[in-house]
Amino acid sequence: MDMHTVVVGTAGTTAEDVVAVARQGARVELSAAAVEALAAAREIVDALAAKPEPVYGVSTGFGALAARHISPGLRAQLQRNIVRSHAAGMGPHVEREVVRALMFLRLKTLASGHTGVRPEVAQTMADVLNAGITPVVHEYGSLGCSGDLAPLSHCALTLMGEGEAEGPDGTVRPAGELLAEHGITPVELREKEGLALLNGTDGMLGMLVMALADLKNLYTGADITAALSLEALLGTDRVLAPELHAIRPHPGQGVSAGNMLRVLEGSGLTGHHQDVAPRVQDAYSVRCAPQVNGAGRDTLAHGRLVADRELASAVDNPVVLPAEGRVESNGNFHGAPVAYVLDFLAIVAADLGSITERRTDRLLDKNRSHGLPPFLADDAGVDSGLMIAQYTQAALVSELKRLAVPASVDSIPSSAMQEDHVSMGWSAARKLRTAVTGLARIVAVELYAATRAVELRIAEGLSPAPATLAVIEALRAAGVQGPGPDRFLAPDLAAAEAFVREGGLVGAVESVTGPLD
Predict the structure, then answer these.
(1) Which of 182, 259, 461, 490 has the greatest number of beta carbons closer than 10 A?
(2) Same domain for 127 and 212?
(3) Bridge-partner residues for 383, per DSSP?
(4) What is the CATH number of the domain that holds 292?
(5) 428, 429, 431, 433 alpha-carbon torsion, rounded to 10°
């Protein structure tokens, strides 16, 4: 576990903190202000629980059963029961990083002082995170409204010492055993606490935050591979001139064009479009790369804005309003703001994959590649070169197009029509994760084809940009081979994917250009 510590206070958290806890194993600590806020809100809940008037979530049933007033003697059972009954997920286990993000973000809302749980409940959640215990959460069970109910319920079940969880060694065992091994006492839930542990957008938000981090890397990587393809196709970099993009001032477009121009600085391959198979303009997939990549970048910026707002939110129902001394029902658990952005990002990921694949296909087609051998093969006919690598890339693009169909336009009524409109934000988040993985593979195939094509140009006596040479050198050092006779291709493609996904591509370029945008 990383010894870096993230302090959880009353004012929300940052995307960087979410990634640190979810992916890097950062420790979590409650601030003194958070503990005070938790205690103050709990006093309000206790006072309301002592009154004869029913208060939703404190002394009533839940959802369509909210009309029943629950007597004090049954309220602890009520809170246990909501966790047990709502832990009804099915399907494959959700990834460890998603569960850690979900728990951390729920802890963030608990610490806001608007949920009414006791400080010890929040501390137990922090202790479970710090012990590296990860509740078993299943793929299906959230409609993205009333929060990510089933996923959060499985996490709450672990806090109670029930159900199953994954230990630090990756072995799934009874949660009670894991808590005991780490000296963690299971929580005994009181009024409102079970409900407060379940009612948030934390799963979809955690997946949005991590997708944004991954897509930032992939969009910079796609600027680079587009530049390499432009080089390999002997295209012109004049279309990247800042003055051209200034007259259509979409911020992302200017950034992508600027990145491509910096990658191509010093290239001896650009500008030959009139020498070999003369053409006035490059194809759209080459010439319009900044426009497409840039529009996606602007979508990421909107996604970050929504994520930052949600990270500053306290999402629960009902919420405690300490200044007024009351508990109030609300609809802030509805996942629509997050769901829309998750769907939007799946659309731009699909389109980035689409334009990327078109450049790859152009590199492999001898009728459009301006002098490159068919399929970049060593001895075309005997060798098939990268023919089937493009098939794989095309299959991935087709998959991303299917994943771009929005989840948030769907709604299935639940809870006897009490919850009659839902966001499906969890579903939008799950398909976006699949799309991001596919996009990394699509970019990797273009990288593999473009570097091979550039090396073939080098063999012709042309000199690529210094940044391009740095990419080729780093890629070969990562185990991805260059041009030559046919060989088992899958390991090369897998290594190229890791090189893209883990930041090797961006790092290689930045060693020459300095930080890209």
Answers:
(1) 259
(2) no
(3) 380
(4) 1.20.200.10
(5) 160
Domain boundary among 151, 170, 200: 200
275 and 178 in one domain? no
Tell me: do 367 and 466 sit in the same domain. Answer: yes
Sequence letter at residue 408: S
> How far apart are alpha carbons 370 and 361 in whole angstroms?
13
Whether 449 and 430 share a structural domain: yes
- pTM of the full predicted structure? 0.95
Place of tokens 């806020």: 37
* CA separation for the pair 188, 186 (Å, rounded): 7
Pairing of strands 134-135, 164-166: antiparallel
**Residue 71's Cα: distance from chain center in Å?**
43
How many structural domains does the chain have?
Answer: 2
Kindly give the interhelix angle for 202-232 and 504-513, rounded to the nearest 10 degrees. 60
Q: How far apart are CA 125 and CA 8, in angstroms?
A: 12
| pLDDT digit string, tens, across residues 180-196 | 999 999 999 999 999 99
Do 431 and 323 fall within a single domain? yes
Pairing of strands 27-30, 164-166: unpaired
For 390-444, list the strands marked E by DSSP.
none
CA 151/CA 455 separation, integer angstroms: 49
Q: Is 56 a catalytic residue?
A: yes
Which run of H or of E encompasses 212?
A: helix 202-232
Report d(CA 40, CA 31) in Å as an integer. 14
Confidence band for 277, pLDDT divided at 50, 70 and 90: low
Show the tokens assigned to 346.
């799946």
d(CA 50, CA 296): 53
Write down which residue in 175, 200, 225 finishes a domain: 200
CA distance 362 to 175: 54
CA–CA separation, 169 vs 152, rounded Å?
A: 22
Q: Which of 56, 219, 340, 448 is catalytic?
A: 56
Q: Domain of residue 12: give its range.
A: 5-200
**Do 294 and 313 belong to one domain?**
yes
Per DSSP, the three-state class of 294 is helix
Q: In the chain, count H helices and then E strands.
A: 19, 9
CATH number for 39: 1.10.275.10
- Give the tens place of pLDDT for each residue, 403-448: 999 999 999 999 888 888 999 999 999 999 999 999 999 999 999 9
Classify residue 460 by burial, with Cβ atoms within 10 Å: 0-12, 13-18, 19+: exposed
